[in-house]
Design brief:
By secondary structure, the protein is α/β, with parallel strands linked by helices. The chain contains 20 helices and 15 strands. The strands form 4 sheets. The chain has a 6-stranded antiparallel β-sheet with strand order 6-3-10-1-2-7, with helices on one face. α1 packs across α20, α7 runs parallel beside α11 and α17 runs parallel beside α19.
């Protein structure tokens, strides 16, 4: 039997790949492990990348479906499986980050399983299932009071949902041009008396209120008095300010099942288990659930107890404190959509757009960014991809770069449906280009031509130049929808690495993973 010839050395990373020597060594090790390449006898093996269970968890991907995340986490410790159940955005809306929230639940220090706002009911159900699988998991109030409370992301006033501060609503300006079917508002908030500061890349948490008309419709459907006392307040105010009137929670269906019988009870019990007997579960907000089981008369206190708390909303900050001292701005799409004969409203977006008076106080907190911010060196080039309201943090970045007099170059990919009516901040962007803070602007308008064009199409068209920017050490940023746009943009970047960097498919994916690992690919997705 002939001896096998030594396997030739394979150049894992092309010479024109945009990495320094240390990054090249790390990524070569990553590729060697990922592709199961052999090291020839006598050659020097490159160091494999260090792995941390939290940082390298394969399910830490907001575009990945819950079922797939749970499969990848199978057999892992409870905290890891709980983290996989979450939406994996580290958004901070729960008062923790994903790892800290899962740790608090698994260590029996947190019994609220419904705090993951991006994950919603799907995540809450999976967390409940995991807790039940471990024999109940969460300790009672008396036992928990004897244990030290888990630390929130920040205990400093104004930097977590647990410690909001007061600010003032200053102004709203519609960004859409004439003829647009959409309403997108530029929002300005006064922070001068709040005691908080922020940086470009941070988000703002806002405690909004439900539409009073929706609260009144719920009261009418329940035949409950608006002034019924609830904990020193009245029922109507609690429905407007404290509880979620969105997707009906399982606890509400459990309550309904106690108040009805026969087939209706069976349906309520099925809905409480996460089943969908009539095919309408995803359309049942609190009002629709009450109307579906018309005639129920729950005790108002029991009804309020069955609802989930009204969660704060997080928005990417669209301003730099250097350009807007004492102020913060947001860029918010107003959410409205019909279901049946009723129009559903986004809670915070319509509150800002229509119900919050100018000069009114509001409760806010600054959510510090988790790995989403400008390079420390202003000479580092940046590439930003942010269609629609995804432009928000990049407006902040560009304002900051202008104040820094950054020389590294900045390239923005922006898109929407129509150039005439949805070119947000057009004059400001043109001014930033004239001032040199914005080097290149590539736009995509999906409804202005016979063929739909998106930001990833513009990236593909400019692939060679984009690769050359990466070769100069550019950092790559993306902001927007996690499940569709962000995935398409990442796939396009992989394709550019393959086409212009000489990498095959697996190596191109590993290249993008290397960008993420070294902090050169950062995402603010939702």
């Amino acid at each position: 039997m002939n001896a096998q010839a030594p396997m030739p050395l394979i150049p894992l990373i092309p010479e024109n790949a945009p990495f320094n020597a240390e990054q090249r060594a790390w990524l070569s090790g990553f590729l060697a492990g990922a592709l199961a390449l052999e090291t020839p006898a006598g050659s020097v093996a490159l160091p494999a990348p260090a792995t941390g269970e939290e940082d390298d968890a394969p399910w830490h991907d907001p575009a990945m479906a819950l079922e797939e995340r749970m499969q990848l986490a199978e057999g892992k410790p409870l905290a890891r499986r709980m983290m996989a159940a979450m939406a994996q955005q580290d958004c901070g809306q729960c008062g923790y980050d994903c790892a800290a929230y899962s740790k608090a639940i698994s260590e029996q220090g947190e019994d609220r399983l419904n705090l993951c706002a991006p994950g919603g009911k799907e995540t809450a159900r999976m967390l409940k299932k995991l807790v039940e699988e471990t024999g109940g998991g969460v300790i009672g109030p008396e036992e928990r009071a004897a244990k030290p409370a888990p630390e929130p992301v920040s205990s400093v006033q104004g930097y977590s949902r647990a410690t909001p501060v007061k600010a003032l609503f200053l102004a709203r300006h519609r960004l859409n041009g004439a003829g647009s079917e959409k309403v997108t508002n530029h929002i300005e908030i006064d922070l001068s008396e709040s005691g908080v500061t922020y940086e470009a890349g941070d988000s703002l948490g806002v405690f909004a209120h439900n539409d009073p008309a929706l609260a009144d419709a719920v009261l009418a459907a329940l035949h409950a008095p608006a002034d019924f006392p609830i904990g020193g307040r009245i029922l109507r105010d609690v429905l407007i300010e404290d509880v979620s009137l969105g997707l009906a929670p399982d606890m509400l269906f459990q309550l309904i099942s106690f108040l009805t019988g026969g087939e209706r009870r069976q349906k309520a019990q099925a809905l409480a288990r996460g089943e969908d007997p009539d095919g309408d579960a995803q359309t049942l907000d609190v009002l629709a659930a009450i109307e579906k089981f018309a005639g129920i008369r729950p005790d108002p206190e029991a009804f309020v107890e069955s609802l989930e708390p009204l969660q704060p909303r997080l928005y990417s900050i669209s301003s730099s404190p250097r350009a807007n001292p004492g102020r913060v701005t947001l860029t918010i799409d107003t959410v409205r959509y019909p279901i049946g004969a009723r129009e559903r409203l986004g809670v915070a977006s319509t509150w800002f757009a229509e119900r919050l008076p100018v000069g009114a106080p509001l409760r806010i907190y600054v959510q510090k960014a988790h790995g989403f911010g400008l390079p420390l060196d202003p000479a580092t080039p940046i590439i930003m991809v942010g269609p629609g309201t995804g432009i928000a943090p990049f407006r902040a970045f560009l304002q900051e770069r202008l104040a820094q007099k950054a020389q590294g170059g900045a390239w923005l990919f922006f898109g929407h449906q129509h150039e005439a009516s949805e070119f947000f901040y057009r004059e400001e962007l043109e001014g930033l280009r004239a001032a040199g803070a914005l080097t290149q602007l590539s736009t995509a308008w999906s409804r202005d031509g016979a063929q739909k064009v998106y930001v990833q199409d513009r990236m593909r068209e400019a692939g060679a130049e984009l690769w050359s920017w990466l070769a100069r050490g550019a950092h790559f940023y993306i902001c927007g929808d996690a499940k569709r746009m962000a995935k398409d943009v990442e796939d396009t970047l992989c394709a550019i690495a393959a086409a212009h960097g000489g990498l095959d498919g697996p190596a191109a994916k590993a290249f993008v993973a290397g960008l993420k690992k070294t902090g050169r690919y950062q995402a603010d997705v939702y």
